[in-house]
Amino acid sequence: MMRLGIIGLPRSGKTTLFNVLTGEDLPTGPLAGGGRFDVHTAVVDIPDSRLDALSKLLKPRKTTYAKVTYADIGGLQIGSGREELPGPLMNQLEQMDAFLHVVRAFDDPTAPHPLSTIDPARDHMAMETELLLHDMLMVDRRLQRLAEERQKGARDHGVIDREIAFFKHLGASLDRERPLRTLDFSIEETQILSGFSLLTRKPVLVLINLEEGEAIPVLDVSDGAQMIGIQAKLEMEIAQLAPGEAQAFLAEYGIEESGRERIIHACCDLLEFLSFFTFNEQEGRAWTLRQGSSALEAAGAIHSDMARGFIKAEVIAWDELIALGSIAEARAQGKLRLEGKDYKMADGELIYIRFSV
Ligand SMILES: Nc1nc2c(ncn2[C@@H]2O[C@H](COP(=O)(O)OP(=O)(O)O)[C@@H](O)[C@H]2O)c(=O)[nH]1
Ligand SMILES: [Mg+2]
User: Fold this and answer.
1) pLDDT tens profile 307-324
2) What is the DSSP string of 25-76?
3) Site to substitute for ligand 1 among 100, 233, 263, most atoms within 8 A of C-beta
4) 17 falls within a domain
5) Residue 296 falls within a domain, yes or no?
6) What is the pLDDT of residues 223-247, one digit of tens each?
7) Minimum-distance ligand 1 atom for the alpha carbon of 235
8) Is 138 among the domain residues?
9) Enclosing domain of residue 345
10) Cys bridge to 16: 206, 232, 296, 347, which one at CB 3.0-4.6 A?
């Protein structure tokens, strides 16, 4: 399951966004949180209109959406990265697959900005800098340890020297203010890194929290991050309306996709996830996988037995099935393709696994 951590300066709208994404009703505003360490977590369905269309056609008893975990992580602020982050905060940040970085562009005198003025470019850099500083600290500490190890002769010198060179390379990138997410790592390097919580490795979706009707400012977020505009407060008000009212409201404002859907879809792109679907009489269900995953990995996501006893997969794109009108018709026309275990799954496919254990 995808885990997305909401970060940003105090009063940027993190908790407001969390409410939008999860349907919760946590208190927001100057009296709530205010920069202290504070985490709220919720697991919610990923809305998926493709799954809805398939369920309408195939009529399973129930429909199960893929899930995502959102965590509203308060406590990162200017100066946080200069020393070691408190354990519980570090622990939370480390667990995330990606960050949703909320950057404040709205003005609201009742919720003063911690730096008094509204400056999205400054705030974006400030948070990036905290993450960079934190990673520098981790890299320096590791280099010290490696130097000690080398002196003691604890491990083979060649191995230690390679690791030292690698961490120096990371340090050089950080010194140039290049987040580690902009670097490519070999399998060996990824293994070395697996024991370290380096925060700038994680993908970031920058969410510019706009004033109603305001255009998105031009920010340089080219460092492997992506950016979209949101109106968290308005979205929260919409999310708290009754479903029928919300529809009317969205239509009135000419909003095609709710903020919640837009953000989750941007995250799936950012993290290079794909969705696939399984159906039987009982249940129609959506699953998420890394892009480039095979049919065998898809089977393994459903059940380890299916991977172990994998024979073949029958595969069809969701919209092709909708156009054909039924599984029987798809089969009759030879559109239900028979694929082997190495088949690379594409986004939006319906799959039936043939297996025997
Ligand atoms: N005008 C406006 N106010 C917002 C928006 N998003 C959040 N706020 C307000 O900003 C204040 C701080 O929001 P909150 O979600 O608690 O920020 P957090 O400290 O980052 O969790 C609250 O008073 C919100 O109502 C927005 O999009 N527009
Ligand atoms: Mg908050």
Assistant:
1) 999 999 999 999 999 999
2) ----STTS-SSS-EEEEEEEE---HHHHHHHHHH--SEEE--EEEEEEEE--
3) 233
4) no
5) yes
6) 767 888 888 998 888 877 877 887 7
7) 27
8) no
9) 292-355
10) 232
Q: How far apart are CA 67 and CA 31, in angstroms?
A: 31
The answer to whether position 161 is within a domain reads no
Closest residue by Cα to atom 5, ligand 1, is 233
- Can you tell me the distance from the alpha carbon of 174 to that of 191, in angstroms, rounded to the nearest whole number? 20
Ligand 1 contact, 19 CB (< 6 A): no
End-to-end CA distance of the chain: 26
Q: What CA–CA distance (Å, rounded) separates 190 from 354?
A: 34
Q: Kindly report the pTM of this predicted structure.
A: 0.87
Q: Of the given ranges (251-255, 269-273, 285-289), which has the lowest mean pLDDT?
A: 251-255
Mean pLDDT of the 154-170 span: 93
| Nearest ligand 1 atom to alpha carbon 231 | 27
- Which ligand is nearest to the Cα of residue 11, counting in written order? 1
Nearest Cα neighbor of 174 from 206, 220, 142 is 142
Nearest CA to ligand 1 atom 22: 29
CB of 80 within 6 A of ligand 1: the answer is no
Ligand 1: atom nearest CA of 72 is 21
Name the domain count of the chain. 1
Residue 29's pLDDT band, with cuts at 50, 70 and 90, is: confident
pLDDT score for 166 = 96
- Measured in Å, residue 14 CA sits from the centre of ligand 1 at 7
Q: For residue 222, what pLDDT is reported?
A: 67
